[in-house]
Amino acid sequence: MKGISVKQAAEIVGGRLSGSGDAGRELMGLVIDSRNVQTGFAFAAMAGERVDGHDYVNKAFELGASCCMVERDIPNAPGCLIVVDSTAKAMARLAEAYRKTLNIPVIGITGSVGKTTAKEMISAVLSQRFKVLKTDKNFNNELGVPLTIFRIEPEHEAAVIEMGISDFGEMSRLARMVRPTDAVYTLIGNAHLDRLHDRPGVFKAKTEMLEYMPNDGTVFLNADDDLLSVSDCRQNRVLYGLGENAEVRAENVKYESAVMQSCDIISGLRRIHISIPAYGRHMVYAALEGAAVGMKFGLSDDEIIRGIASYETVGRRANVIDTGYITIIDDCYNANPDSVKCAIDSMCASEGRKVCVLGDMLEMGTARAERHAYIGRYAVSHGVELMLCVGEMSENTVCAAQSITALHFDSNEQLIAALPKLIKKGDTVLVKASHSMKLEEISEALKLLK
Fold it and tell me: Which of 145, 210, 281, 367 is the most buried (most CB within 10 A)?
């Protein structure tokens, strides 16, 4: 983040300069964790429930901060302060202003499922030719997005920014900062329904992004999604998917192993045979997203092949672990009906007895009981042989899956205690739930089985 001085930043955010120091000093970056301050960085003090960043202002100056953005004066502060009503809103205004100084492609990624996977895959492909900045970790919300924008430096030739929302108007606020030149929509699913109500509501909220894109931008849409495939926009549209309606499509999908699959990507007369070093049918869509964006930016077949081959799984997203006793599909990061269905589909293409360890899916709206029951029926119809569930809502999943062995547990601890008697050598075990259910505890216990 270069080209904006402390004084200019104060003017942009409508803040009041206070304290001492050089207001003409250029900002080199902005962080909200004082431990990440480097020389020339700005530190934005956030008042949280457990930690108040204002208590670390002096520490930030000791580490070389050029200024601190605060919501109240700090007596005897040894540097420049920008005093604002809200540091979060000030960060958004500053990010919007900084983004306008940049002249590089910015690809915005959104959808109900697969945003992070798409971000990683597209970055892997574009990095074969360009210096790419991508969203770090899960910084895809109204605090994370500005921090991502502030990390864009003059050497970057493209940025891939993940954008996650849970309410109407939120995407507009994100897109006002990001101003994507291009956008990728992964899937419109049943997520955050407490506020977005239903899939048309999710679609409406996600497509707020398009208002902040240029007319000559390109929007990449999942052709196999019934809402996205027929959506209209003033930008250029590219459909990707498995069907004949897709302009960039996959054929001859083959599972080579639990952690490798291959397919042919077809676009007009162009045919590219690729290998995907990751588990799950959703990875074919990620490869299509990477290839479609790569084609738009002029990458060669070899560059696209190398980019897809360089993809690495992030965290607990469909991470396949062969313990020598069982195969674990650790997918504990998050869950909604669409992502759980996709995970079950992928698992059922694997070897061994199919076992699901499932927890509650959160933010499912008023129909949450039926949505959990639907997963139980879906699992049975797709070959799952044993289901172990934990969580209040997951009782509905168990009740709907009574034609197989389906058990409900009151806690993770109870489920873990039962694992040695229930899990057999050679099983393939999917572990999936919303992140707050902490099913990673169960994944770790599964690793210890012998």
Answer: 145
Name the amino acid, one letter, at 198.
D
Residue type, 348: C
CB 37 within 8 A of CB 31: yes
What would you measure as the largest C-alpha separation in the chain, in angstroms? 72
Q: Which tokens sit at 365?
A: 């709206």
169 burial level (CB within 10 Å; 0-12, 13-18, 19+): exposed
Digit-coded pLDDT (tens) for 172-205? 999 999 999 999 999 997 778 788 888 899 999 9
Confirm if 273 and 267 have CB atoms less than 8 A apart. no
From CA 154, how far away is CA 28, in angstroms rounded? Answer: 11
Q: Are strands 218-222 and 327-331 parallel, antiparallel or unpaired?
A: unpaired
Task: Give me the half-sphere count of Cα atoms (radius 13 Å) on the Cβ side of residue 330.
Answer: 20
| Prediction pTM value | 0.81
Sheet bearing 132-134, strands edge to edge: 132-134, 158-162, 106-110, 182-185, 218-222, 236-241, 248-257, 260-267, 270-276
Compute the distance between CA of residue 30 and CA of residue 60 in angstroms, rounded to an integer: 11
Distance CA 31, CA 68 (A): 10
Residue 238: alpha-carbon gap to chain centroid: 21
β 29-31/16-19 pair status: unpaired
- Closest to 150 in 3D by CA, of 247, 12, 273, 279: 12
pLDDT digits (tens, 9 = 90+) for 218-249: 999 999 999 999 999 999 999 999 998 999 99
Q: What residues have CB less than 8 Å from 155, skipping those under 6 apart?
A: 131
Centre a 10 Å sphere on the Cβ of residue 39 and count the other Cβ atoms it contains.
Answer: 10
Half-sphere exposure of 87 (CA within 13 A, CB side): 24
